[in-house]
Design brief:
The chain is an all-alpha fold and 401 residues long. The chain has a single domain, classed as Up-down Bundle (Rhopdopsin 7-helix transmembrane proteins). A two-stranded antiparallel sheet has the order 1-2. Helix 9 packs antiparallel against helix 10. The longest helix is centred in the middle third of the chain and has 37 residues. The protein is globular. 40% of the residues are buried. The N terminus and C terminus are likely disordered. Keywords: Cell membrane, G-protein coupled receptor, Membrane, Receptor, Transducer, Transmembrane, Transmembrane helix. It comes from Synaphobranchus kaupii (Kaup's arrowtooth eel). One of its GO terms (molecular function) is G protein-coupled receptor activity. This is G-protein coupled receptors family 1 profile domain-containing protein. Its main location: membrane.
């Protein structure tokens, strides 16, 4: 799955060439793993030995790479970035899960999606410590074959499920604005949501397994957790790249952008919808953040696939930059674990009021005052007013209490 690479260049996409200027003399287990781990220099040697056809002019891979990229600095920067994502992402998502779990019996479909997005993000945050240590040890894996496969599977499932539930959440928000209130609740509606939820998790797991089946612990100079299909690597990589691009990015992005545009249009034409210009701009911010997080990743990943199809298309320097930048854009994509709680929860007045309620309920009473009522006073809105605001706002996370 294009994005199913580990945070530290775990997938076969990166180990296909590895770093073009890195050690090019691994001790592969089989001939198929050798072909799957060739560097640009390996391809040059094959061409010189007559194993590859070449043009009349000098192919690029017979020339040395002239670019010098600082991989040690990148490794330190990535470790610090993953550490920051882990600490902030775990804190944010734990708070969001705690507050929203208290309201899990609400009829809101948006809240139902928020809970699933939060669970998905927490899954990948919890496996980040393995990746942080691995990136510092230059892809050496010390935790055995079982954790190699499990951590990769968890990452892959989150890679798809987070996008699926963000798209479903946006669709639920649009339907909440366009459907009559009488159709928004009921047992039939809840069963439909549960079935959709199960279906999205099952689809995420299926797509993740397609990649995870090729993940294993390989012992070259040092043990490493790699994904390396035994046969037809280029064909398999191309298929996975397009599956990833369609299911994880293009499909969800189309739903998110289209629904947000329709919600903004409906909000402008409906005088009873509260929130005004701020929430309309927030809708566009939802779409922008999704694209910014994932477009660079898929663009680099697609170019890596193109390089596998035609190794003579890009210069040695371009290939080196591609594989060097992949870890960077992958870290940018993982920033969604930090961005989602902020965009879909903390920017919501409804969520902040419920957070205050939850905190005050944990504080021992020093008088006979009802903590919940005090929280509503702190939030500046009574229960009825808050509920009205939640139901009519265009903000994704403003859901009924």
């Amino acid at each position: 799955m294009g994005g199913t690479h580990f945070l530290q260049e775990h997938s076969s996409r990166h180990t296909t060439h590895q770093d073009p200027l890195r050690d090019t003399t691994p001790a592969p287990i089989t001939s198929s793993t050798l072909s799957a781990s060739r560097t640009p220099q390996d391809k040059a040697m094959e061409s010189l030995n007559g194993s590859s056809s070449h043009y009349n002019d000098t192919p690029w891979f017979m020339l040395e790479c002239t670019i010098n990229l600082d991989r040690d600095s990148r490794r330190i920067a990535l470790f610090l970035l993953y550490l920051l994502l882990f600490m902030v992402g775990l804190s944010e998502n734990a708070v969001v899960l705690w507050v929203n779990w208290r309201r899990r019996r609400t009829a809101s479909g948006v809240l139902f999606c928020v809970l699933n997005v939060t669970v998905s993000d927490i899954m990948v945050v919890l496996v980040m410590p393995f990746f942080m240590l691995e990136v510092m040890m230059d892809k050496v894996w010390l935790w055995g074959r079982f954790l190699c496969k499990v951590t990769h599977l968890v990452y892959c499932v989150n890679f798809y499920s987070s996008s699926f539930f963000l798209a479903y959440m946006t669709l639920e928000r649009y339907l909440a604005l366009t459907r009559p209130p009488a159709q928004a609740g009921g047992q039939g509606e809840r069963r439909r949501r549960v079935l959709i939820c199960v279906g999205l998790w099952a689809l995420s797991l299926l797509l993740a397994v397609l990649e995870n089946v090729h993940v294993d612990l390989l012992g070259w100079n040092e043990p490493g957790c790699y994904m390396m299909p035994e046969y037809s690597y280029v064909e398999w990589f191309t298929t996975i790249t397009f599956l990833c691009l369609i299911f994880q990015f293009l499909g969800p992005a189309s739903v998110i952008i289209t629904c947000n545009v329709l919600i903004a249009r409906a909000a402008r034409s409906a005088p009873d919808v509260q929130g005004g210009r701020r929430d309309i701009w927030l809708l566009h911010l939802y779409s922008l953040v999704f694209v910014v997080c994932w477009l660079p990743y898929h663009l680099v990943f697609f170019l890596m696939m193109v390089d596998d199809q035609d190794p003579r298309l890009f210069s040695c320097n371009v290939v080196d930059v591609l594989y060097f930048s992949f870890s960077v854009v992958q870290a940018v994509s993982l920033a969604h674990c930090v961005a989602n709680p902020i965009l879909y929860n903390f920017l919501s007045k409804s969520f902040r009021v419920n957070l205050v309620n939850a905190v005050l309920e944990r504080i021992p009473r020093v008088s006979g005052e009802d903590p919940a009522r005090g929280a509503n006073q702190v939030g500046g809105a009574g229960p009825g007013k808050e509920r009205k605001m939640s139901n009519t706002s265009t903000s994704h996370s403003d859901v009924p209490s």
